Amino acid sequence: MRLVCALILRSMNWSVLNSFPSQLKKCVLVAAPHTSNWDFPMMLLYGFKLRLRYSWLGKHTLFNGITGFVLRKIGGIPVDRGKNNDFVRTLSSEFSKLEQCILIIPPEGTRSRSEHWKSGFIHIARQANVPIIFGRLDYQEKYLTFSPQIESSLSDDEIIGFAQMFYKDATALHPSKFGPIRLKSKD
Fold it and tell me: DSSP class of residue 178?
């Protein structure tokens, strides 16, 4: 599978700018910009190529029958957004049970333009006591790059400030859908 994914990426002229920290077994991997249905398969291709075992969240309606079985096998975790679930606590407790967990979260929460990022990735990382890594697919330059690990104990402003610097030159597949990098005001 690794070779097949590497060949697909090479045939599309995509590369990895830097490697994922090999010693890191647990983290929240922030995947942005998320403006297209292509972002997900691209991250999966890179995951297989780099031998990373991702976990990721998806709409619960996708996890039916054989499709649900396959999605769970490749790291999918069904989420029912209509219910008031305590996913921060649930996901952070999963980290303690697993030897390795790289949880991918698109902070916009949607492929449409969002005026702010959701803060769940920060809360999950803090409660699980794991670092945050930012991952960026750049569709103009055709590469994936990872940030250094960021300690989740930093303030929200420090984490978002780092994200703003990391993504400042990112080119989404649909640039007009990549909104500002900021958290929702607490007013």
Answer: -
Q: How far apart are CA 27 and CA 184, in angstroms?
A: 23
**Residues 6 or more apart whose Cβ sits within 8 Å of residue 64:** none
DSSP3 helix / strand / coil % (the chain, rounded to 5): 35, 20, 45
With a CB cutoff of 8 Å and minimum separation 6, the contacts of 29 are: 54, 102, 103, 104, 105, 132, 133, 134, 135
Number of H helices, E strands in the chain: 6, 7
Question: Residue written as tokens 């993504």?
Answer: 167
Pairing state between β 132-138 and 26-32: parallel
Enclosing H/E stretch for 109: none
The closest alpha carbon to 26, from 51, 54, 2, 7, belongs to: 54
| Region at 138 (left for phi over 0; alpha for psi -120 to 50; beta for the rest) | beta
Q: Which amino acid is at 51?
A: R
Model pTM score: 0.89
pLDDT tens for the chain, 187 residues: list them: 889 999 999 999 999 888 888 788 999 999 989 889 888 889 888 988 988 888 888 888 989 999 999 999 988 888 876 666 677 787 887 788 888 889 999 888 778 888 889 898 999 999 999 999 999 999 999 999 999 999 999 999 999 999 999 999 989 999 888 988 999 877 5
